[in-house]
Amino acid sequence: MSRVTRPLNLAIRFALQAGGIFSALALSHSAWAETAPCFIKQPNDVAEQQIRMALPMTQSLCIRDVHEGRAAVLLPDANLAIDDVALTKGLSAHRWGFLDNRGQLVIKPTFEQVGDFHYALAAAMQNGKWGFIDTTGNWVIQPVFDEVQPFTQAELTVATRDNKIEVINRKGEAIGQPLDELVDDAQVSDGNPVRLRLSYKTVLLSPDGRRHVASDKMEIIQPFTNQGLFIARDADKGYGIADDELAWHVQPQFSAMTLSNVNPSLVLAKSSDGMTLIRADGSVVDQKYQSVTPLNGQFWLAKTADKTMLLDNNAAPISSLNESQAAGLSAQGDFLLDSSGKETLSIYVAGRKQPLTLPAGSKLYQVIDGYLLTQHDDENKVNAIITQSAAMIGGAQAVGWLAQISQAETIDGRLWLRDKEGKLLNIVDAKGKALLSQKTLNTLVGYHIQPLISVHDNSASAPLALIRPSEGSEKTGAGFVRADGSVQLEDKWQDIQPADNSENVAGGLAQHFIVKSVQGTGIVDAQGKTLMPLTQDNIAPFVHGYAFDYLDGKLSVIDVSGKHFALPDFFELESIGDGWFRYRETAADGALWGIYDVLTQKTIVAPTYQSVGSYANGLADVQLPDGLWGMLDQQGKLLTDAKYAGIRRINSTLWKGTLPVASSENQSTVPASQLQSELLGNDGKVRIGLTNGLMVTQFNDGRLLATLGEGQSWLLNSQGNVELHEQQTKITAVGNWVKLSRQPQEGYLNAQGNWQIPLTSSQGSAFVNGRALRTTSTGTELIDDKGTQLATLPAGQWYWPLASDMAIAYDNQPSGMTTRYVDSSGKPTLTVQGEGSRMLAGKAVLTRADGSKTWIDTQGHPMTNVNYADLGVASEGLAFAEVGNHYGYLDANGNFVIPPVFRAVSAFDHGMATVSTSNTSMLIDSSGKLLARVDNECGVRVLYNAGSQRLWPEKMPVQCHE
Question: Hey, which residues does 834 pair with through a beta bridge?
Answer without folding.
Answer: none
